[in-house]
Amino acid sequence: MKQTPAHDIVNAELLSLVPLAARRIVEVGCMQGALARVVRQRSPSTDYVGIDIDPDYAQVAAAHCTEAFSCDIEKIEPARWDGLFPSDCWIFGDCLEHLRDPWLLLRRIRTAIDPDGTLLVCVPNAQHWSVQWRLASGNFRYEDSGLLDRTHIRWFTRITLLEMFQNAGWRIEQGLTRNLAPVPQQEGILQAIRGFAVAGGFDPEQAAADALPFQYVFKLRPA
User: Fold this and answer.
1) What are the φ/ψ torsions at residue 203 (nearest 5 degrees)?
2) How far is residue 211 from each of residues 54, 168, 189, 206, measured CA to CA in Å?
3) How many other C-beta atoms are found inside a 10 Å radius of the C-beta of residue 60?
4) b/e per residue 25-51 (b: at least 16 CB within 10 A)
5) C-alpha angle 13/34/68, rounded to 5°?
6) Which tens digits make up the pLDDT trace of 120-174?
7) What's the CA gap between 94 and 11, in Å, rounded?
8) Rounded Cα gap, residues 150 and 142, in angstroms
9) What is the pTM of this model?
10) Rounded to whole angstroms, what are the CA distances from 124 to 87, 97, 99, 116, 217?
């Protein structure tokens, strides 16, 4: 199955969390190197390794990275894996949800990253109001990109993300949300979500708040 269509949009929230003094960055799911290009423009001395499962994307990304190659990070050869260290910053921008076992991979990185290392992630929110609306209406159809990207194989909410990070040995240093511009039906659906929460016996305002972020962005450190 072809991967998510590539684009040149730089995730501003993710970029804001990239350490300026990073020595060696490994970005998994680098696409065509949009983030790498901006990071290396402002920090030319940073060694930047881009990895993407799509060889066509990795070939384009090579122009913006110190090194770029294509592989399935969960099936990477041991010698090549070892060659990714030492490194002090790993980035997964809209990538963890495409992995079979992101829990295991995050634990592996935790054991090998530099002691002062940073993990940056951006993950779509499966609890977003639009996903709940699609479930309620039955119009739950896969798409080429977005929350229902057909190549997603894992789904996360705020709670399950926090659990994954904690269980993999990471602590959150900073968290951000990325929200979509409001649309007319949004408030009515949020109100319905509040009612669903009341019926289910949980906090209606928390349920509505958790339905707003389109994506979560986190900066993590080894626990």
Assistant:
1) -65, 115
2) 32, 25, 10, 9
3) 18
4) bbbbbbbbbbbbbbbbeebeebbbbbb
5) 120
6) 999 999 999 999 999 999 999 998 888 989 999 999 999 999 999 999 999 999 9
7) 10
8) 5
9) 0.94
10) 26, 8, 13, 27, 9
The SS3 assignment for 176 reads strand
The bridge status of strand 47-52 relative to strand 24-28 is parallel
CA atoms within 13 A on the CB side of 147: 25
Q: CB-based contacts of 108: which residues, under 8 Å, 6+ apart?
A: none
Q: How many degrees, rounded to 5, is the angle at CA 166 between CA 161 and CA 167? A: 100
Q: What are the beta bridge partners of residue 70? A: 52
Choose among 125, 106, 141: nearest CA to 221.
Answer: 106
pLDDT tens for residues 10-63? Answer: 999 999 999 999 999 999 999 999 999 999 999 999 999 999 999 999 999 999
Token pair of 78 as six digits: 């041991």
CA distance 19 to 23: 9
* Joined tokens for residue 195: 């009612």
CA distance 146 to 171: 27
Q: In what order do the strands lie in the sheet with 47-52?
A: 67-70, 47-52, 24-28, 89-93, 118-124, 215-222, 170-178
